[in-house]
Amino acid sequence: MEAAESPSELIRQANSAFVSEDYAEAAELYTKAIQIDDSKSEYYVNRAHALQKLERYTESKADAQKAIDLNPSDPKAYLRKGIACFHLQQYEEAQEAFQSSSTHGGNDAGIRQWLTWTEEKLLRSKKTPVTIKHDWYQTESHVCVTVLAKNLSPDSVSVQFAPSTMMMKAKLPDGTDYELNLNLSFPIVPEQSSYTVMKTKVEIKMKKCDGIRWSSLEGQAPVNVKQIPVAIPELSAQPPVYPSSSAKKKNWDKIESEIKKEEAEEKPEGEAALNQLFQKIYGEGSDEIRRAMNKSFQESGGTVLSTNWNEVSKDKVTVKPPDGVEFKKWDE
Fold it and tell me: Which residues form the SGS domain (predicted)?
């Protein structure tokens, strides 16, 4: 039976592979040595170095930290951690690791160079904070917000939906926090809203409560405000009588009541009557009726007004001008 290779022999082979620039083979051999003896900090330092050559910086940082745990005074372990953090854009942690490496007797020239690069990155990040842009578009049923943030981990992103608000939080690759809060123009359905984290962006999809077209993403939606009459305490049992040069006194409350009665009984005619009818149907109609009226009126250029959602939802409503009239676009 062939004897298993010793950790020292595996390390020798790994070092040889590293010198030959076969970093994957070197990392594998370092791993085999660690599986036999995981108490040597230098094994983890060597594998961290090989992993950095393979640009596997997260794993390299973990190995460097393990080496520090085993030997807190190893300057090479701090150096490897600093380099890994630098490439992960974790500059504050990198700076701390390089300073620790120098404190424990690391190569002063090399450490100073890494510290200089790290300090430049920190200064630049403070002067030019990352600006994350977002945009939005809408369909008949949804409003979609696109947040142009790259390389986000799905675990670092959270989105909370409420009927009138949306809040997104994320941890950016450089370690900074990002937050987007929107006070929506119109209500949404939170339980039917969702988001997707992609490589170059975050796509947030919100379900509209009503199939209406939003004029803006944020702000207060236009509403029909009705004034509520305020009760005025009765000061006298007698109707108000105002000063007048006329010898005959007038009951102004009675006159006002008669005017209001006449206005209520007055029936509009022609186009005014038609508009009043449409307003009544829209105001008292269901959501489907309002959607049908909006869709048919907009798509037909104002020539069709339908209340049948089942009919108009199937296809685009065509223009139907009155008889004897030819429909033309404004630029024709």
Answer: 241-332
**Distance (Å, whole) CA 25 – CA 22:** 6
| H or E element at residue 167 | strand 165-171
Q: How far apart are CA 168 and CA 182, in angstroms?
A: 9
74's CB contacts (< 8 A; 6+ apart) are 41, 42, 45, 67, 68, 104
Q: d(Cα 23, Cα 53) in Å, to the nearest integer? A: 7
**Between 295 and 91, the higher pLDDT residue:** 91
Q: What is the DSSP letter of 239?
A: P
Domains of the chain: 7-127 (1.25.40.10), 134-208 (2.60.40.790), 252-312 (no CATH)
Specify the pTM. 0.42
Top mean-pLDDT range of 104-108, 291-295, 300-304: 291-295
